[in-house]
TrEMBL record:
Lineage of producing organism: Bacteria, Bacillati, Bacillota, Bacilli, Bacillales
Pfam families the UniProt entry points to: BPD_transp_1 (PF00528)
Membrane-spanning intervals of the chain: 7-29, 70-94, 106-129, 135-160, 181-203, 241-260
Subcellular localization(s) per the UniProt record: Cell membrane
Keyword Transmembrane helix: yes
Protein known as: Carbohydrate ABC transporter permease
SUPFAM superfamilies assigned to the protein according to its UniProt record, in alphabetical order: MetI-like
Similarity comment: Belongs to the binding-protein-dependent transport system permease family.
Domain ABC transmembrane type-1: 71-260
InterPro entries linked to this entry: MetI-like, MetI-like_sf
Organism of derivation: Paenibacillus alba
């Protein structure tokens, strides 16, 4: 039985390793292609690795375009959306989990129902409202529609319901108000969930392409996903430049994940659901 267990573990590790290599292959190919010349990529010569590694693609991106401005736009929108979404999700989840009020179940069902509506369905009404507010070509056009997440509210509610009510009552007896209760008691207990939700929200905001494409046409207000379109010429594409930009775009997301990976994994394993 022990030999069979060791053999089975070896097979599982081998399968997982193969799947990990398959998943990482596009990113590795993208990094290696960014070090090639455009002619080498178009001709397909040299195989998988660059024959003459060069940083010309990165120089073009950083020196000949306002890429740092686009990077700042994406950073501002993603950080603001993530921070406000975590706040609204935690606060709403706490209210739905620990407070009783008329129409609570109906309101929560309506919030969950919005999770079933594709963004494409509400895209035109959202655009018309954004235009009425005069936010076209403004970063607030990206931020405002994404400040509340129905999935975040649902997830926070499930986690906060697991917190013993006696703990909250004891804190109230000691003089803790609702804000201190959220900050000192609930927030630390749901930190894994907040980390997981924060990473998902940050990644979705950072990689959002469709909505910024609709509401932004000013080059100075572009976000980094739109930058990839900027590098596509009418008759020719500089693939090494596009690959270099893609590497620079994906690097911040990888860094954020590496920083919060422990909390992220813990948040995924702790579902908080009864």
């Amino acid at each position: 039985m022990q030999r069979r267990s060791v053999w089975l573990d070896g097979v599982i590790i081998a399968v997982i390793s193969v799947l990990a290599c398959i998943m990482l292959m596009p990113y590795v190919w993208m990094v290696l292609s960014s070090l090639k010349s455009n002619m080498e990529i178009v001709a397909g010569s040299g195989g998988f690795f660059p024959q003459h590694p060069s940083l010309d693609g990165y120089r073009t991106v950083l020196q000949d375009t306002p890429f740092m401005r686009w990077l700042l736009n994406s950073a501002v929108t993603s950080v603001v959306i993530t921070a406000v979404t975590l706040f609204t999700s935690a606060l709403s989840g706490y209210i739905f989990a620990k407070h009783q009020f008329r129409g609570k179940k109906l309101l929560f069902i309506l919030i969950l129902a919005t999770m079933m509506i594709p963004f494409q369905v509400i895209m035109i009404p959202t655009y018309l409202i954004t235009a009425k507010l005069g936010l076209i070509n403004h970063l607030f056009a990206i931020i405002l529609p994404n400040l509340v997440s129905s999935y975040g509210v649902f997830l926070a509610k499930q986690f906060i319901e697991e917190i013993p009510q006696d703990l909250l009552d004891a804190a109230r007896i000691d003089g803790a108000g609702e804000f201190k209760l959220m900050l000192r008691i609930i927030a630390p207990l749901i930190l894994p969930m907040l980390s997981a939700l924060g990473i998902f929200t940050f990644m979705n905001s950072w990689n959002n392409y469709l909505w910024p494409l609709i509401v932004l046409n000013d080059t100075s207000k572009m976000t980094v996903p739109l930058a990839l379109v900027y590098f596509n010429g009418t008759h020719m594409v500089n693939y090494n430049v596009v690959m270099s930009a893609a590497v620079l775009i994906t690097t911040p997301v990888i860094i954020v994940f590496l920083i919060f990976q422990k909390q992220f994994i813990k948040g995924l394993t702790m579902t908080g659901m009864k």
